[in-house]
Amino acid sequence: MGSVRIDVRVDDAEAGELVSACSWEAGALGIEEVTAEGGLCLRVYAPPARADAIAAACAAEVGGRARVAAPRPVPEQDWSLAWRQGLEAVVASPRLVVRPSFVEAVAAPDRAVLVVDPGQAFGTGHHASTRLALRLLDAALAELGGRIDGARVLDVGTGSGVLALGAVALGAGSAVGLDLDPLAAPEARANARTNGLGGRSHFFTGPLEAVDAAPFDLVVANLIRREVAPLLPGLEARVSTCGALVLSGLLDTDRASVEASLSAVGLRVTRSAEEREGGDAWLAIEARRAVT
Ligand SMILES: C[S@@+](CC[C@H](N)C(=O)[O-])C[C@H]1O[C@@H](n2cnc3c(N)ncnc32)[C@H](O)[C@@H]1O
User: Fold this and answer.
1) Atom of ligand 1 nearest to the CA of 181
2) How far is the C-alpha of 137 from the C-alpha of 29, rounded, in Å?
3) Strand, helix or coil at 98?
4) Average pLDDT, the chain
5) Of the residues 182, 188, 193, 213, which has the fewest C-beta atoms closer than 10 A?
């Protein structure tokens, strides 16, 4: 028996969530979200016998906020592989490509490649906050390259380990990554092994306080403002005299308050980068010790 794909265009994210919930309930096998012609489209994969029930459930749940296309047949296994679609290789920074293992990246002599498969921990390079952090790490490491042999990096809220491992792939000597989520460190270690970086990285489950306040050349944290604000004194304490702190996961509306909080711990903004994604303007900031 083959499967069918039903494309459901929705007006907004809330309608998308409702369509998703009622489609699962009506027997969907898989659901993929894609952005199509500026709007959101859910591709619902289902057995042909469930197609009518899914269309009816969507109409009942969101009415005019969704347009349900006629089902079209797809080979049986397509829905189970469909989640891979859209997971392309990402040029995350000028010198780094992040790719899933099932996507080939075009080789470029001046670019390192990091393989990260989607797992339970955050961080495949497909979110703007991850890319922005990698861009600022890339720039900071390029500057450090001539001055420091084997820069040390601390990644706070490491998730998949993508920032720690990306930094090492970009030339850092070693990286330590930590996360409160017990799922993260094992995934980060597995990603380190996949990339042959196990010997230059260390990941553990625990808080920032578990890291000696020994200096790191780069400290990076991709956390939303509410999460990072209480950590700022501890982050600052772990940055070496000439080192840098890279914060990502911020919104452009956070800029003034984050600058003020950084200033309160003796850091000033030396570089920033922004990227728009999904209606949000994401912001990353590099900060260094204020020279008096
Ligand atoms: C947005 S994800 C970033 C993952 C990855 N570093 C990236 O840039 O793609 C934030 C991660 O920080 C972790 N986290 C949140 N608060 C934390 C804290 N206070 N200390 C350590 N990890 C934290 C979460 O569990 C999550 O894995």
Assistant:
1) 25
2) 40
3) strand
4) 89
5) 182
